Amino acid sequence: MRKQYAAANWKMNLTYQQGAELLKTVLSADLTLNENRLVLFAVPFPYLELANECVHQKKFYFSAAQNCSDKKSGAFTGEVSAEMLKSIDVPYCLVGHSERREHFGETNEILSGKVMICLTYGVTPVFCCGEPLQIREQNFQNDFVKKQLKESLFPLSAEQLLKVVIAYEPVWAIGTGKTASSEQAQEMHAYIRSVLEKQFGREVAQQISIVYGGSVKANNAKELFACGDVDGGLVGGASLNASDFIEIVRALK
Ligand code: PEP
Question: Which atom of ligand 1 is nearest to the CA of 167?
Answer without folding.
Answer: 3
